[in-house]
Each structure stands twice: as structure tokens, then as C-alpha cells.
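Can you give me the bound-state structure? Components:
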Amino acid sequence: MSPPATLCAAGAVLVACGLVGSLAGRTRWALLLEALGMAMIGAAGAAVLFGAAAVGAQFGRGFSPAFGIDRLSGFFLFILGVVAVPALGWARGALADTPGARMTAGARMTAALTGAFCLSLVGLVMARDVTTFLGFWELMTLLPAALILIGRHDEPARRDVFAYLAITHLGGVGVWVSMLVLADHGALAGVPLHGDGLRGLVAIAAIIGFCTKAGAVPLHSWLPRAHPLAPAQISGLMSGVMIKVALYGLIRVLFEWDGPTPLWVGLTLLGLGVLSALGGVLYALFQNELKRLLAFSSIENVGIILLGLGASLVFAAIGRPQWSAIAFAAALLHVLNHAIFKALLFLGAGSFAAQVGGLGLDGLGGLLRRMPWTGAAFMVGAAAIAGVPPLNGFISEWMILQSLLHLSLFGRFGVSLVAAASAAALGATAALAVFCFVKVIGLVLLGPPRTTRADAAREAGVGMRWPLVLLASLCLLLGIIPGVLVPTLERLHHHTGLLSVHAGVDLPGTGGLPALPLALALTLLTVTLWRSSRNGRAEPTPAWTCGQATVPALAWTSAGFTKPLRILLENVLRPTRDLTIVHSESGVIQELRYEADVPHLFDSLIYEPVTTAALRMAGRIRRLQSGSLRTYLVYLLGLLMVLLALVQLGVLT
Amino acid sequence: MSHAVIWIVGLSALGVVVVRRRSVAIALVGLQSLVLGAQAISQAAGASTVLLVAGIVLVAKAIALPALLAAVVSRTREPGRMASERHPLARLTVALAVALAVVALMPDIGLAQVAVEHTAVGLVALGIAIAVVRRPAVFQALGFLVVENGIYLAALAAPKGFPVFIELGLVFDLVVVVSVAGAFSAKIHEEFGTGDTSLLGDLRD
Amino acid sequence: MTADRAAAGVIQVLGGILLAPMIPGLTQQIKARLQGRPGPSPLQPYRELRRLWHKSGVSPRPRTVVYELAPSLVTASLLVALVLVPIGARSPDWPVGHDALVLVGLLALSRFAITLAAWDTGGGFGLMGASRDLTFTVPAEGVMLLAVVLVAMPVHSTSLVALSLAATRSGVWGQPAHWAALLGFLLVLLAETGRQPIDNPDTHLELTMVHEGPLLEYAGRELAFLQWASAARHWIMVALATELFLPQPGPFLARLGLLTVALPLWCVLLALTETTQAKMRILQVPLLLGGGAVVCLLGLASWFAGGGV
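Here's the bound-state model for the whole set.
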């Protein structure tokens, strides 16, 4: 076996050992083993990505289980390693911080299932035949549900898990249909599909199936319900890797097995991308709970990635292979970037929750001073996801924006108009993301603490700190030298890449993005200016705020900060407001209660009517169920006769 | 295959549709199985494995299962005529119509004799029809047996016959199904005082 | 040629740093004249910067490192942005490139830093301004991108140098698309620099502040940095409007001459808008910018209808 293969197999064995070990009760050692194993698997993936020969089987015709790593799989294994190692390390640190939790059955099962979840993701990415792929696909869907239910038994949680399973399984039909049709025609082994109808069917089924799992609007309703429920490390894995692995499937189908796709497929992806990016970030902005907000922001980022992939497909369809490869690389870079900062943010949220007890945005505050390491790392992640230079989020968003922009320069009128509108939407999304994460940083890290528990928060232990610091430094690193990775990602596209390895990203037809000098200039100038700005300070005083007294009741809330936008979009978002007089004495009002909410319209306008209609139909169909054996036999006979009649008529052959 | 065998098999199935007494119906099915078993043994003369299998099938279907069902029937007395039963002539018409329709619609399955092919298909259809038109629980098991006899008949007439494993498997299935049906029939009788399956419709949620 | 580029580089840096406060100063002066007041001298911003430079900072409670670093970060990002904008379509090979979208990113970074500083002190007026500023940015960035698409159409590039060179081609002037882009860009300019009718730079009423709001808690050199940054934002936007949208002669010196004439002209234009237009209701602003987006999309349609250049 080649070194990557050995490394990968050894890693899988280690994770399996950890899985068994955690069941046996050695939870902390088990998590360590799992983290080591995932590190080895990630390293194997990176080795293949950066030029080692492909490992194991190729995609083939058969149905017998086969595994292998090619460069695309290697990239996703690398992402998995980058996220799983800190996530497992954080889980280990969290166990160390709460001494009682180590031996509980819940902790043991969580550790074991986390290992199993990681292995199912590895299996899916490495699957080289349709049965293995679909098997691991289902496993990947089911294991998080089990993980959530270990920690949460209450009725709302069970309902949300049910919604998760129902939506992803219904959407999963698309995955099955597309994969089975492709396997049946031998397309996995490289035989091109024949017939526009069939190819269109495969493309539509794949888009529905994989985009449901990736959480693209309007198929996303499960995501903001399920992701916040899970323990922090699982949320990080789900948002960071699981939804990306769904995009991996989409890439395989649309770029390899069903390609080259017609123009409308790319345009569909662009449409889904705009919807997801804008919808995701808008709803994220109005959330009052940190993990739910982060889940909505994952939808936004899936939208951004879909914009990149869509642009790549459209470029290919209009005969611009070079830009197609650039857009593809941009989308993949954003996949990696989002995995890193979203895992960082979820783990950070977990650390805050462990200290403060809850994650209501209006109950935190002032945590940067109380938890400097965690807070600083969290701030780096939030800045990166907001897409400000010189962090990694800016690089990939810049590349995707450039792709859309050049798409509108090269395309004909229809394509150009769609691309320009998408670019404008992505610009607005970026601005909204800045808005959203300014709010998050402000409410969580800055200002005065808003509750006594937030006031009493202490820095988390080293075990929970190093994963955050590691991920934050990756955000910085990829923001400063993205150019070492981009040409490699570009070569994952069929078009052989033309970009050369620099620290920055130098695309044709742009002014270039020299990330390293940009970051250096910004840092040096900031430090110099900061040093020269110190001209003595007055004694500490309360903030001036134009002479107002700073009382906690006047502190700005999440709802207050976003109010201008909420009023502006009133017709779209339909927020609810409820003002009740709680307490009045002899006509003088003493206490008011004000409740405002931005309801998730997709639930009430799309999902509820659909479920209601489905239940009504089911009620009608239920009348067929008489409970009498003879009636069923009559159905059987009827069906038999109808089928036979159809055969006689020559309809079925 | 002689015409006598075909006629006996077909008529006995129609008899099951018509007769009132459960014990008579069981006897008819037993007779059907016996005739088919005898035919199988006569065809298998010489080949010892096939002979052994045919013997096992004969014993199971013609003796063991009817005996089991007869035991169930003798332990459960019906309180007179079932109110919900249709008129025998109506049952016969429906069953015949179903069987003829299926025979007419069925494409050629490639047996040596056309008459045997039609009878086999007709038996399968009649078996299902028996389960549909008769109310007492035992008849559902009998219908199943008739279906199996139809398939067995087809197997006998098939140019190469069925592999022995499939025949053995079928018999095993049959024993399990009929035993369960018999047990349930007794249980239903215990609960309701009658084997009328139309009462079971009220049990659904 | 190299001399041209070196001269452009000098103007980018020194001109940007030293002349930037002149733009808001001149605008205020012209506006005052238009309104029949003597008004402050155009040099007033320099005097204020000098005054602030000699004062000490304040230390509000609570504050973190964010409050202390924000003014420097805002200023640093604008300093880098200064050298991205070519002068006379020339720019020395600064290592930071000259891409239009990087410029947008740097402006976003400065906004990010200053709004975070508003959260750090937690003052209500600062946050009110920050929240409005961020709200306006949402449509403004969309319009900005559409304007970039339109000006990039003839050259297929987002490099500011290439875009600026394209402005010398005569064919561009017959294109309605170019004018649509100019209109969109001017709306963005108003939003970005915080002029009327979007924001009132003269206001002393905290409740109506947008850009000034987050500056309320600062004093001394930090405030001086922030005020310079505001002036630099004026400089960048006005220079871009000249470089990308005005009919340009070819030679470098002629272009420099045009720039010297155009800068005061833009100030006159700003002063005229401020005199004739009252400040809009805050919720009308995004509609105005949305109108800019529609104009840009129409411009795109007209580009294809005209068959391009």
C-alpha cells in the first residue's frame, strides 16, 4: 500500500478503537484516539490533494463495496481533518472542565457516536461505488439525529429532529434517484449519459437531493432547527463538514458524471445561491440565539458556494473553461474557509454556553475581557465570516464576486443580467454579513455584561482554548497566503489550471489580490498609527453618550440594532409586534411588555401548507385501509388484473 | 398429464368456493393436493431425489396441513350459518369470473400443455378469490393452499420442473403460513366466538 | 512613462494624505456661500486636526482593545485604499494591487472597525448611527457592484488602472450604460461620504447622526484619525468619479490638469446638492439606492441593445 493509503487505514482503525474505547468508558482517551485518527485521515487526504498518486479503487460499474481517494476526495478529507481534530479536541477539553460529566452514559455515547459520525463522513467521501455511497449517505443523516437525541429528550427537540429526518429523507430521494440512474447507466465509470431528458432528470434530482442536505433555500427548513440542538462539537461538524459533503456529491454529479451540463443547470444553481445567500443572512440577522444565528449563517454560506459552482457551470456552458476553473476553485476555497470559521464559531459558542449557561444574545456581553483567548479567537472567526480583509472569508468571497462579475462581462444578455444581479445580491449579502457579525461581536464580546452569569464568566480551560486558537490562526493564515492553495484547487477542475503559486491570488482581468502585502500593510500601518495615537489618556470615566446615564435598561439589544432594516423590509419579513400593558396602577402604566419576532416565513408559507395538504391527502388515502384481509386481497387481485390488462394492451413490455 | 387430473384439480377448487361446511372444503383441498402429489410421484419415477421431495410435499400438503386445519375446525364450532356469507351461486359467479378473466389476460408462460397452463393460472386466481369471497378464517388458509397448488401444477408441467430447493422452500413457507393461520383462526374464534373475518375490520385504529 | 507613474504615486500618497481634508472643507465653504453665509475657511478641517492632535484621548468605561485599535485600523485601511486609486490612469506598482473590489473590501473593513467600536462603549447614539450606516450599506454595495460591472464592460477588467484608461476612449461617451453607471456611483458616493440627502455632515443633533454617531465617544488624536479618514473617503470617491467617469484626455499632464479642475467642481456639485436637497427620511434612503440599482440594470440592458463598443 502507498503511504497515504496506509495512513488513512491506520487512521480509520484508530477512530474505530476510540469508538470502542468510549463505549468501554475511557471517554477522554477515546476522544484523543479519534482526534489522532482523524488527523491521520486528513493528512492522507492532503497528501493526495497536493500531488500524491490516487489511492485505492476508481469509480466503477459494480455494486460491490470499493473505497479510494482521488484529489477531490482528498480535499474533502483534508477539510474533515481540519474541522474534526479541533472539534474532538474541544470535546475532550469540555469533558476535562466539567469533572462530573466524564463518566456519564450520555458523554460516552456522544463520544462513540461522534467517532462513528466522523467515520461515516470519511466513508461517504471515499466511497467508490453507488451502494457504499448511498449507505454512508443514510448513515451520515441518521447519526446526528441520534447524537441530538442523546442530549435532548424534550418534546420540542424531538419534533425538530423529526422535521430534520423527514425533510432530509424526502430530499434524499433525489440523491437516490440520481445516483441509481447514474450507476445503472454506468456513468460512474465514465460512460456519458445519453439523452437530454435523462440528463436533465439526473441534474434536477441531484440538485434537489444534495441541496436539501446542504440546506439551500427553500429546502433548508431543517437546518436552523437541527444544528442548534446538537452539542457544540457536533454542530461544528454538521455545519462545517456535513453540509459540505452534500456539496461534494453535487460536484461529483454535475461536474463529472452528468457533465457537461446545459446552461439552465448553472443558472438554476445561481438562482438557488442568491436565494440562500440573501435569505440565510437576512434571517441570521434577526435571530436572538447565537447557535440559531450561526445555523442561518451556514445557509448563507452554502448560498455563496452555490453561486461559485453555478458560475463555474455557466462559464463552462458558454465556453470559458479558464474562468470556469477559477469559479470552481473559488467555491472550493469558500467550502474550506467556511468549514474553518463556522467550526470555530460553533466551538466558541459552546465555550460561552459552558460559562454563561445560555446563548440568548441579549444575555451575554463583555466576554472579551473575561475570556480573552476564546473571545479573541471568536472575534477573528466572526470577522472572517463577515468577509473583511485580510482574513480568509474575504479572499473566497472576492474570488466568487470576480467570477460573477466576469460572467456578466462575458455572457450574452440573459446570462449577463442574471450574473450582474447575482453579483449585486452577493454584494448586499456581504454587507448584511458585516451587519450581522458586528451585532454578534458587539452583543457577545463587547460592552458591559448583561447578566450576572455573564459577569461571572471565566476563561475556559486550555483543552477548550487550543482548538479555537488553532482554527483562528488558520483563518489568518488562509487570509494571508491563499495563493498557495488556489492553483491546486483550480486543477481539481477538468481544465488544467493556469494560475501559478503566489502568496496572493492574481486572476486575469482583475487588479489582483496580493493578500500578503495587503495584510502586512494593514498590520504595520495600524500598529504604527496606534503607537502614534497615544498622547495620554484622561482618567477612566463612564462612556459619555451625550450626557445620558448608562443604565442597563437602556443597553442596546439585538432587536434594537437591526430595527432599521426590519422596518425597511417589513413587507418582506412581516415581523410581528406585541405590546401589552402588564401592570397599571390607577390608570398610570407601570410596566409594559414588548415582544417582537421575525417569524420564519418559509415555515409558515411553504412548509406548513405542504404538510397540511399532505396530511389531508393521507387522511383520504387512509380510507382504503379497511383492516380487512379480504379487502386487501381484492386490491391485490385488482392490481394483478390491471397489470395483466396493461400487458395485453402492450403498454408494459 | 391426464385430463382427469386437470378436471379433479379444477373442480375441487370450485368446490371450495361453493361448499358450506369447512370440513368438506378442507377435504377437497386435501384431495387436490393428493392428486397433484400422486401425479408428481408418477412423473418422478426413477429419480430418487425428486421422488423424495415429491413424497415430502405430498405428506405435508395432502396429509399434515389438512389434518392440522381439520383439528382447528373440530375444536371451534361455528354457531350455525354465517350471516355475512353470500349466496353460493353469487360466490361461484364471482370466483369464476375472476379466474376466467385472469386466464384470459395472462400472457403465455410457456408450459407444454395449454390446458395445464390455464388450469394452473386459474388455480392461482381461484385461490385468491376463495380468500376474498369466503368469510370464515380457515378459508384464507385454504385459499393460500390452492394458490400454492396452482404453482405446483405449473411446476409439474414446466419442461425442466422447478429446482428441488424451490419446491422444498415453498412447502416450508406453506407449513409456516398455514400453521400461523390455523393458530390465529383458533385465537379469533376464542375472542369472538366465530371465525368471521369481517369482524376484524373493527380492530383497526 | 516611469516618471509619470512615480509622479502619480507621489500624488496618490501625499495628495491623498494632505489634500483630502480640503474636499470637505471646500464643500462646506461653497455651501455656506450658496446659502449666503461667510462660512468657515476651506482650511477649517486642517485647523481642527491640529487642535485635536494636541489633545489627550479619553478612556470610557467599559472599553476593550477594540475601542483603542479601531481608529488606527480605520485610518490604515483608508491609507491602503488611497494607493489603490490611480491618478491620471497611472499608478506605480504598489504591492497591494489596484483592484476595484479590494477597495470595496477595505471600505467595508473600516466600517466594520468603527461600528464595533460603537458596540464597545455601548453608547446608544453611537449604535444608532452604526446601525443606520450598516443598513444603508446593504443596497449601496449592491449598486456599487452593478456600477463596477457597467464600467468594466468595455475593458473586461476590474483593475482600476484599466478602467481609468478606458475612460479616455471616445466610444464610451456615447454609451447610456456609462451614464447609468455614473448615476449609480454618485449615489454610492453620497452614501459613502455621508452627505445630504443621505446624511447631514453638519448636524449637531445626535439623534439624526449616521456617520458621526460612532465618533461621539472619541477625542484627541483618535478623533483626528477618524476625521481624516472621513475626509479620505471623500477624496477616494471623488478621485474615482473623476478617473472612471469623466471624459479624459490621453496625456498624463492633461489628465492631471483635468483632475485639478474636476476636484473643486465635484465640491461645487456636492454643495449644490446639499443646498437644494433636505435630508431624507432614513427609511427613504434605501429606496433611493434601490432606484440606482434599477438604473444600472437598465444601463446593462442598453449596453446589450447597443451591441457593446
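A couple of observations. The longest strand of chain C covers residues 57-61. The mean pLDDT of chain C is 89.
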